[in-house]
Amino acid sequence: MFRKCCLVLLGVVLPFCASSALSETDSKEEWDRIVGGTKAPNGSAPYQVSLRYFGTRHFCGASIITTKVILTAAHCVDRMKPNYLMAVVGTNQLNSGGTLYPIRKIVCHEDYDNQVIKNDIALVFTLTEMRFEPNVDAIELNNEPVMAGEKLLLTGWGTTSYPGKAPNDLMQLELNAVSFEDCQEAHKDINAVFETQICALTKEGQGACHGDSGGPLVREGRQVGIVSWGLPCAKGKPDVYTKVESFMDWIEKTLDEDDKDHLKELKKSKSQLG
């Protein structure tokens, strides 16, 4: 397995990344579907990304935020080399369709902590621009507070059971936002919940699971959260998401720094060419 943080942390807490990098004989590699969800209509989530090892094995979700930038969870890509990773966009099916993009660069939050799963956010830069079309488009990022009880939409290829078997179709699930205080109380004996996180729940038997990590939690077409961690899976406790609102400055700063670095590289290349 490439990522230590995909293993059990703090006893029962698991980030929701898939185990698809395990050996063929390990049944845990089949942990890949939302619990209690329904099929997402084709084209309903054009921002959805499947992150895959070497372009074939799905292990995490993500979302498109610009023509060359993808948003995901740090625990999905921490210490991963870009050439291990490819992004597939434009399809709801894991085994067909879509366009594959190689990855140029990965930037995890500098204060990401895999022990308590804090600052669990990363940006992934594609080698070439993604071509936008009806089934491929960026999602707007939310910079406004989310109130308890608001309806949120989760999409992903996470397991429908724990453990379970990988689905082919993208799944969706409507959830309710949970207050910070209620989420803290629910997880007080499990793991810390921070103000830079948002929680969501409907009922026992519905929620995120392995393979959903890094995927988008959306309110009215704007992304409010990134799938981070929970008590696997759908056990009646809120799932915990990185709160996008809390990291807008970090996202903008990282994008600006990449633009500057890219410009320097272009100037260097031109000078070398004479």
Outline the structure in words.
- It is built from 3 helices and 15 strands.
- The N terminus is likely disordered.
- It has 274 residues and is an alpha+beta fold.
- It starts with 13 loop residues before the first strand and ends with a helix.
- The relative contact order is 0.21.
- Helix content is 14%, strand content 30%.
- The strands form 2 sheets. A 6-stranded antiparallel β-barrel has the order 10-11-12-15-14-13. A 6-stranded antiparallel beta barrel has the order 3-4-5-8-7-6.
- This is trypsin.
- Belongs to the peptidase S1 family.
- Its EC number is 3.4.21.4.
- One of its GO terms (cellular component) is extracellular region.
Name the helicity range.
Answer: 10-25%
Question: Outline, from the CA principal axes?
Answer: globular
Number of strands: 15
Distance between the termini: 45 Å
Assembly type of the chains comes to single chain
Q: Give the radius of gyration.
A: 18 Å
Instruction: Count every helix, treating DSSP H or I runs of 4 or more residues as helices.
Output: 3
Strand content: 25-35%
Give helix and strand order, one letter per element, not per position.
EEEEEHEEEEEEHEEEEH
Strand arrangement within the widest β-sheet reads 10-11-12-15-14-13
Computed structural class: alpha+beta
Rounded mean pLDDT is 84
Which regions contain 5 or more consecutive residues with pLDDT less than 50?
Answer: 1-12, 19-33
Let me know the largest β-sheet. Answer: 6 strands, antiparallel, barrel
